[in-house]
Amino acid sequence: MILIDGQVATDIPADDRGLAYGDGLFETIEACKGQPVLWKRHMQRLLHGCQALGIDFKDAARLLRECRTLAAGHERGIIKIMITRGSGGRGYRPDAGCKVRRVVSWHAWPGYAATNASEGIRLFRCQTPVSVNNKLAGLKTLCRLEQVMAQLEWDEAEYAEGLMLDQDQRVIEGTRTNVFVVKDSELLTPALQYAGIKGIMRDVIIEMANKQGLSVHERDLDHDAFRCADEIFVCNSIIRVWPVIEYLDKMYQRGPLTTQIMKMLETQIGEYE
């Protein structure tokens, strides 16, 4: 089911600026037993993104009601929210009277292999670079063409995820995940001040690690440092954590710190709503 501005529908006007220019933002949210998971965090990111783009949307309460309507009666699934600037303006400059459009849709839980979490995944090295733009860095905008092109580079049956770098060979993120490495018992993740999405699960893991007294740092990671890691894992709010067991010509173990993070998420995720 899809709700467009609160009404059951499937048609979006052809002049919607999200369709024409990617002028908007989105959130992908786990729903469990009729309730969206980590809702406050998703809304904080969405509202921050709207403010950064100058999109006048503030009604998270109405979005929550619509999400609960779609999730009612389902054990588990995915809610996708898209907020666009609305219709108006043939060119890049939007009309002053644009009315924000919201799209909320329900999706079945994806059939990822259970072994992705329990045994780990092979990670592909994407050639499509992530564009550097510090004004948009961290935001989950509708402009995802780079990720689309990157995912076309490999056969999904062979690799579960792909790694994306920027043009200066800094490691940024996976095509749909954030990345962490462990080196000498330190947990490291790209700082994302230039590019990439600041994921909800990424933030939860950083907070969780800090709370447990683990050494965790956000900083630039070049490709050589990434490959020399002792452990690697990827994460997002749907998959939680997948350990990486192979990248290019190197094999990795599901190490103790990755395992510790995974166990903490299993038992403590409810504390980070």
Short description:
The chain is of the alpha+beta class. It has helices spanning 17-21, 39-53, 60-71, 115-118, 145-151, 200-211, 223-227, 256-268, and strands spanning 2-4, 7-8, 24-32, 35-36, 76-84, 101-107, 121-125, 161-165, 171-174, 178-183, 186-189, 216-218, 231-236, 240-247, 250-251.
What attributes does this structure have?
single chain, 273 residues, D-amino Acid Aminotransferase, Chain A, domain 1, D-amino Acid Aminotransferase, Chain A, domain 2, 2 domains, nine-stranded mixed beta sheet, 8 helices, 27% helix
What does this structure look like?
- The protein is an alpha+beta fold and 273 residues long.
- The protein folds into two domains: 2-107, D-amino Acid Aminotransferase, Chain A, domain 1 (2-Layer Sandwich), CATH 3.30.470.10; 115-272, D-amino Acid Aminotransferase, Chain A, domain 2 (Alpha-Beta Barrel).
- It is built from eight helices and 15 strands.
- Strands 7, 8, 9, 10, 11, 12, 13, 14 and 15 form a nine-stranded mixed beta sheet that branches. Strands 2-1-6-5-3-4 form a six-stranded antiparallel beta sheet.
- The radius of gyration is 19 Å and the shape is globular.
Order of helices and strands: EEHEEHHEEHEHEEEEHEHEEEH
What does the radius of gyration come to? Answer: 19 Å
Count of the domains: 2
Reported for the largest beta sheet, the result is:
9 strands, mixed
Separation of the first and last Cα atoms = 26 Å
Number of strands: 15
User: What's the CATH class of the largest domain, please?
Assistant: Alpha Beta
The fraction of residues in strands falls at 25-35%
Q: Give me the CATH superfamily of the largest domain.
A: D-amino Acid Aminotransferase, subunit A, domain 2
Which architecture name of the largest domain does CATH use? Alpha-Beta Barrel
Shape: globular
Low-confidence stretches: none
What is the CATH topology descriptor of the largest domain? D-amino Acid Aminotransferase, Chain A, domain 2
* Structural class designation: alpha+beta
Mean pLDDT comes to 95
Instruction: Please give the share of residues in helix.
Output: 25-40%
Query: Count of helices?
Result: 8
